[in-house]
Structure to design on (244 residues):
């Protein structure tokens, strides 16, 4: 049976940025209240403002929910479809959360292994934890090929040249310090094997990432156009470590 055919249950990759989604829902509630007041006081202006605020709140919350539940999976699969997996890759996912990128790659690398590193912060992703990531790995039938590490992506606890593919999705922007973000790309270069590839998905700072990747010595660096399958809208930055 193929790796994709061995799924026990569908994984749950959680809701991205739950506090932001909740803010938009609160905005929608305020809009509904304003609409009710407009009807009560027969005010077309209050009605119009209420409708606008309600629609904005609902639309943004719905867009983020769709992105979390469906859009990010579609984009991940589109990205990985363009990569020619040998099947024996060692994969590292930075800020792995519940395992979206990590497990998607391990499923394709049927003889390979995957390592996820994270600080496990729930404000970045709902239910982000080692336990939930491992549960998703079990659901996909790949738990024996996955290990998780607590750690900082800007100071990786791995030997030089350990991985064939390094991924990160909605993770690097959470590093507030500019130098530590640049250090992350130096670490990506260090732990990639010659000829290895990195893929970063994010909604912010992607031009900076491309520059930092090139400064770190990575080549064939490219930054995609806006990808509409996720919200906020994202770009993909990719590149490789030069072959020895």
């Amino acid at each position: 049976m193929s790796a994709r055919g061995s799924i026990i249950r569908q994984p749950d990759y959680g809701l991205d940025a739950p506090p932001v989604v909740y803010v938009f829902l609160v905005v929608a509630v305020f809009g509904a209240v304003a609409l009710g007041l407009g009807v009560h006081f027969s005010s077309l202006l209050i009605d119009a403002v209420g409708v606008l605020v309600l629609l904005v709140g609902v639309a943004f919350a719905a867009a983020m929910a769709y992105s979390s539940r469906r859009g990010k999976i579609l984009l991940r699969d589109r990205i990985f479809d363009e990569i020619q997996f040998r099947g024996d890759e060692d994969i590292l996912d930075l800020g792995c959360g519940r395992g979206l990128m990590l497990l998607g790659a391990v499923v394709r690398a049927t003889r390979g292994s995957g390592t996820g590193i994270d600080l496990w912060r729930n404000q970045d992703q709902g239910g982000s934890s080692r336990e939930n990531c491992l549960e998703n790995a079990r659901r996909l039938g790949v738990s024996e090929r996955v290990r998780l590490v607590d750690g900082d992506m800007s100071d990786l606890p791995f030997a030089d040249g350990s991985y064939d593919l390094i991924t990160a999705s909605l993770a690097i922007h959470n590093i507030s310090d500019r130098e530590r973000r640049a250090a992350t790309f130096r670490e990506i270069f260090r732990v990639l094997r010659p000829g290895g590839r990195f893929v970063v998905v994010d909604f912010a700072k992607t031009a900076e990432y491309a520059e930092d990747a090139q400064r770190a010595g990575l080549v064939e660096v490219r930054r995609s156009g806006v990808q509409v399958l996720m919200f906020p809208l994202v770009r993909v930055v990719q590149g490789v470590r030069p072959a020895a």
Observations:
- The chain is about 45% helix and 20% strand.
- Residues 1-5 have pLDDT under 50 and may be disordered.
